[in-house]
Please model this.
Amino acid sequence: WLGRVWVDEGYPVRGIGSGVVVSSEGHVVTNEHVTNGKSRITVTMHDGKTYPAVVIGEDRALDIAVIRIKADRDFEPLRFGDSDRVRQGQQALAIGNPFGLGETVTRGIISAKERTISDRQRDLFQTDAAINPGNSGGPLVNILGEIIGINVAIYSPDTEDQGFVGIGFSIPANDVREVFEQILAKGRATRGWLGVRCYDWNPVIREKVGWNERGGVYIQDIVPGSPAESSGLLPDDVVVRYNGKDIESRVQFFSQIQRTPVGREVDITVWRNGEEVDLKATVIDAEDSESLTKDSGPGERSISDQAVLRDIGITVRELTLLQRTRGGRGVLVDGVHPEGQAAERGLRSGDMILEINNVRVDRPADFYDRLIASALAQQTSLTVQRGRQVYRIRPFDRVRPPENEK
Model:
């Protein structure tokens, strides 16, 4: 029921990952970053037999892919457990193919729940069961042998040494099962979408809107033509409840939106001008939002956002496929304005920015969102790679929005 996933990049380079068989027809769940852009996939089973496989569907947001083994036989699947019943401290086993050594089982516990390691990877399990390169996509199981998570990442304080230090992360099984079923039914995952841009709280934003309470989410922008605009949501609103649940953080808010069934009407309560206002919005499929929004760069943002980015003076783009196959990650610095703060800190075109405030960034849109929010709060620390050297640059000076945008 456990397989090693070998992938051909289209270059004389191979990648490895892990996966788990979840249906008798040979459907295998693994990570999207294992299969993305690969021209050929081979699955090696625990008995050593190998089979070709094809991608059925991928969900980049959750980092889950479903592949199907091409074989005229039935397979013994592993069952999904109920990840909502997982408790901190319970035993867990991580199964995978670390460093290409073959099937390996390590034991640990669930160290924590609801961990967030990026804007797209939220509500993860943290475990101390040893997870190493090659384990990506393998299952985290309970003592009954049920899948409670899919291993997705490890924490490493040393950017060049990617070995395990006792902190690994897994996607909860209930989220994985939902995406698996959506991919089987539609060929893709569905995500709820409203059309809002939110910032984390910082002193500048709190002063701007006069919000001193705990929790709540600040709405910075509304996408024109979106469900958020139709509902009456406005910039500078503070969302305090969504679908009857108190909102404590931006991460929680987006997680709730994405998990809302497409087409459902939800109640939203916002704090506006000193009082609560009740609104209703109908969630749409995130894929249907592509005509309303893009993976926006600096020129497609609000006036206040553009002012911040001009002051910092940097543009980025995604890494090329070749750079990714050679182990590159993050975003590539495409341009640095000679009079901007980025130039003053020594950034150059061609640098790779790996992290903002220790949070990994892989897409230009995520980079710009996090850069703007952290620059406004004067909390920006960048992890940058130049050649083989990795270093950090000091925070940018505090940047304030233009007066007419306050």
